[in-house]
Amino acid sequence: MNTRLFLFRIVLVFTIIMGAVFILLVSGVFTAGLSHDERLVRNDLACLTRDINISLQSISKNTVAFSKSVSESIETQLLSQGKDVSDLKNDPELIDSVLTKTFGKALLGLLSSKSSGVVIILDGTMSPIRLAAEIFKAGLYLKDMEPTEKDPFIPNIQMLKGYPDIALDNPLPLHAKWSPEFDIRETPYYKIPIQATSQKNLPISDSYYWTPPFTMDETNEQVILCVAPLIDSKGNVFGISGFEVDSTFFSQSYPPRNTKYSRTLGMLFTQTGGVNTVQNPMLSGKHSPDSDSIRDGTLGITNNKKSFSTYQENKGEEFLGFHNYISLYPQGSPFLNDRWAVAVIIPKGDIVNSVSRLNLVLSSLIIILLVIGIVLSLLLSRGYTKPIFQGIDKIRPTGSGGDAKTNIRETGGSVEFPASQNRTPVRKKGQAQQQALPPMLSQFMDNINTLSPAERDVFDLYAQNYTAKEIADTLSISINTVKTHTGRIYSKIDVSSRKELILYINMLRDFGQQLV
Questions:
Q1: How many whole angstroms separate alpha carbon 363 and alpha carbon 358?
Q2: What CA–CA distance (Å, rounded) separates 3 from 13?
Q3: Which of 176, 404, 417, 487 has its Cα between 20 and 30 A from that of 132?
């Protein structure tokens, strides 16, 4: 087998495959898995952003409409008794009467909204004489314990805040964490919208407020609230009302659609404590220990314009994903600059493992192709060299003798003849051939015998590597005569050039034949 041909084919196959690998790298095939995941997450994010934005905008409109309705209802009740909203602060019986009559409106609002709870807080307390009475506010807080499985006939609604008599009269169970009034010291949903509305004299439609996600002390449950101030016809603010979205409702209502990664999380958050810092986001998706650590901790965001952004939890866990900003407020709102965002994130290890598996498959296929190329090179090399060796075998001399090798450059010593060969006397003019030659050389010898004496003289000098001019000088003939003899010689011995003539002569010498 021709080793050089085989090695050449191996190098050729290797070069082709490496070129293919380079093209794959440049074209991004090895990162196609990552690019595919990026598209999946971006599409999932677009759908989730749309769903959440539509839902929250709907809750915002319901909050505004509900606050207007409650404000008008309470003001009408008070006017019928010759009272106004300022009388609520120091009249517990009046507050009790107002809340009792407002309960039906609150319950109906909860059942008709896409939320998990409804809240009404009045600027007054049932115990104005107790210590620190100003931090307690009377109101209603109704929670739907199964907000995604609403049954208008058998609702699972409990009272979290409010007078127990209202719950007993309706009847309505009290929540396990029930308390009669609101402690507004740490509540982000009471003071902020009231202060903003009072300072700028805003209409209800421009003064609703979405609280950042926070954990209610009473329930230890993460919630967001959309609340709007209660305003009478004279512009007096006397409380707030609105709707709640708790973590359970959010998780079940807005699940990520990504089916490739089981631990995909949807996230709603406000950026506080820095532009790229997130605290206590609302999460949707399958529950896992990772989601607990995110919900209870701080998440740092590293934006990447070309690929996944990185979301690193304070305990070191990393997630990859994307986020979009949404606007929850109208142009005239004092909270227009609050940054709300929706994100879809996946544990980094899940994506890395998936892409690595895909690249491992691609690498394995390339190795298999390389092995197949080597095997094919081996088989093809044998197939191409076999006819060459068979042809050389046909022209090998037989018999015994010393080693003999051709001096033809094309074979370059790769063909060896038997060490022992029959040596015959040098074939002279007119002598019979005494040694068997290959048919090609035997025919050449016979053709030489057809030369005339003058042509043979020129031929013999050619055999001694004389040039045409040297032959003319040696034989004392003109150069034109030499050319004439040369043309006849070429025609008779069937060669086309002096180079081919010398090649035949050298081959005869390799077989032990001396022509001169």
A1: 9
A2: 15
A3: 176
Phi, psi (degrees; rounded to nearest 5) at 449: -65, -15
Alpha-carbon distance 27 to 364, whole Å? 19
Distances (CA, A) of 439 to 156, 301, 364, 391, 399: 109, 86, 54, 13, 17
Task: Find all residues with CB under 8 Å of 16, minimum gap 6, and list them.
Answer: 373
Tell me how far apart the alpha carbons of residues 516 and 502 are, in angstroms, rounded to a whole number.
13
Half-sphere exposure of residue 179: CA atoms within 13 angstroms, side-chain side: 12
* φ and ψ at residue 397, rounded to 5 degrees: -75, 155
Tokens matching residue 131: 């210590």
Q: Are 123 and 95 in contact (CB under 8 A)?
A: no
Q: Specify burial of residue 265 (Cβ count, 10 A radius: 0-12, 13-18, 19+).
A: buried
The length of the chain is 516
0.85 exceeded by pTM: no
CA distance 121 to 103: 12
Q: Where are the alpha helices (DSSP H) in 113-224?
A: 164-169, 191-200, 204-207
Query: What is the rounded (10 degree) CA torsion for 141, 270, 347, 28?
Result: 140
